[in-house]
Amino acid sequence: MSNSPYGSTWRALRRNLTGGVLHPSQLKSFSHARKRVLDNLIAGLEHDSKDNKAIYVAEHFRYAIFSLLVLLCFGDNIDDNQMKEIEVAQKESFLSYQRMKLFFIMPKLGKFFFRKLWNELNNAMINCNNVFLFMVRSRKQEISARKNQESLSYVDTLLDFQLPGEEGTLAENHIVGLCSEFITAGTDSTTSALQWIMACIVKYPSVQAKVYEEMKAVLGQENQWVQEDDLQKMPYLRAVILEGLRRHPPGYAPATPHAVTEDVELGGYTLPKGTAVNFLIPDIGRDPNVWEHPLEFKPERLLKSDDTSEDDSFDITGKGEIKMMPFGAGRRICPGNGVAMLHLTYIVANLVWHFEWSPPDGEEVDLTEKYEITISMKRALKACLSPRFK
């Protein structure tokens, strides 16, 4: 969908996504699936950090976010073995795609001189496609029982999707492509954002203490889990999430290039129709003309003002003045911004509620950036986790 030109098909696909599995009412029906993933995440972190051992947490985060999106995509009846199979297949396919760049430069010569490598990489991508195809067909076989299911998955909506006009339904290969895009696009960006936010929480203990005290005031000391309904009562937690996205957005520019559809004037320059325009997302969120001390991590700046009922400084949709745009803006804003915020807030809350986070002895959290598919940490987050519940 991200590569589709703006038109009736793109509008219909986006409407199907935002009005289907990403609609707030449908997201709520997956709350038990999120709790299942959270249980596994907390258990994995507890196991690996025994005896206050410092651990790298990025892979734990990545698998949790990946699992959440797989369950949204294929339904919450996916078991752990199937989850692992999908993960392995997609990871091998992604690595193969990265290594295939040689063949994009010299397609004919590359395939001739490196035939064995070509076959190996191509087979990995075919295997991933087959795994996704099996999941789609398996879900299709359950379609008659859907009325007994509370949760409508993404693939359910695609199986019923009608293309605009008289073009019929989506072919299986198109459904596979949309499912793969749904999982891949959300996993990398949200994982990167989660690691950055937790890195700031580890680096700034006063921020962590304020988050914990706010949660304690809402939950008391007996509850061992932060429930999704509790999150609305935690404005400082939300401010921490937003400040993390402002200071360390996961993308440097929108993943999909944007082009003007007609000649326009911008900043004194004439941009001819078809000119590609990139928005430097980090620079917008760090503009010193908009943000005081923009390189500092100050969640308080994103709390509502005492004298106003609404503070537009944390509008991340671009409906008003654009002061930060971690999910893009305009009609092609990331349709998953709502679910990403839910996942980030829910997971960060429970990570801080269950553990006291600190850097390893003698080490500091390095916030140096590295530019890959997303803006990631040059040195992956390593932390000591002390359980708050004995």
From TrEMBL:
EC number in record: 1.14.14.1
An annotated Gene Ontology molecular function: oxidoreductase activity, acting on paired donors, with incorporation or reduction of molecular oxygen, reduced flavin or flavoprotein as one donor, and incorporation of one atom of oxygen
First-tier enzyme category under EC: oxidoreductase
Compartments where located: Membrane
Membrane topology: Single-pass membrane protein
Keywords: Heme, Iron, Membrane, Metal-binding, Monooxygenase, Oxidoreductase, Transmembrane, Transmembrane helix
Alphabetized InterPro entries for the sequence: Cyt_P450, Cyt_P450_CS, Cyt_P450_E_grp-I, Cyt_P450_sf, Plant_metabolite_P450s
Binding site for heme: C334
PROSITE patterns: CYTOCHROME_P450
Predominant location: membrane
Membrane in keyword set: yes
Gene Ontology cellular-component annotations: membrane
Cofactor(s) in the UniProt record: heme
Source species, domain of life: Eukaryota
Keyword Heme listed: yes
Family of this protein: Belongs to the cytochrome P450 family.
Protein name per Swiss-Prot or TrEMBL: Cytochrome P450, putative
Organism, as annotated: Ricinus communis
